[in-house]
Amino acid sequence: MRGRTAVLADPLLDRMLFSPDQILDRVEEVGAAITRDYDGRDLVLLTVLRGGIFFLADLARHIDLPLTMDFMAVSSYAGGGAAVRITKDLDDAIEGRHVLVVEDIIDTGLTLNYLLNVLRQRRPASLEVCTLLDKDARRIADLQVAYRGFRIPDRFVVGYGLDLGGRFRGMPFIATLRDEVMG
Ligand code: IMP
User: Fold this and answer.
1) 107 catalytic per annotation
2) N or C: which end of the chain has fewer CB within 10 A?
C-alpha cells in the first residue's frame, strides 16, 4: 500500500474492510475453484463495466484454463425500476459457450437478474455468477451465486473497482464509507 496514505486519510472513508492481501488471497482461492470446476470446458468471463474489471483482471490470472473475456455495460433507466438498458453489448456470441459472469458486488441483485435473463435467451451452454462481494441481506432478486469472494454487511463500500460517483475505484483495498456520507 505504498503511496496510498493519501486515500486512506480521505475524510469520506470509515475503515478498511479488506486489505489488498486479503483480496488477492481470496481471489486466488476462487480462481482455483473455477479452474477445478471448468476443467476441459471453454470458459467465457463476462464482466459488467466498469467496476468489475479490477476483479476480472486478478481473477483471470488465477484461473489456469484457456479463456476469453467479453464486456457489457448497462445503465438503469431514469425513474428507477428493475429494467436496465444495455449501453454496450458483448462483442462475441455466447451460444453454446460456458459463460461465467464476473461481478464486483451484488446488492439487491435486480441489475444482474435482468442481465442473466437477457443472456439466457442467447442459449449459452451454461451461465453462472461469480461475485467478489455479496450483500445478501439486501437481496430482492432470486438468483444463484456459484462463486463468492466475501459476504458483507449492508454498508456502502468503495475501492478495488467500486466507486462513489466515480471516485475511489483505483484503491487497492476495499473500505466502508462513513455513515454520514450516505445519509
Ligand atoms: P444491485 O442491482 O442492487 O444488485 O446493484 C447494482 C449495482 O449497484 C452494483 O453493480 C454496483 O455498481 C452498485 N452498488 C451496490 N452496492 C454498492 C456498494 O456498496 N458500493 C459501490 N457500488 C455499489
Assistant:
1) yes
2) C
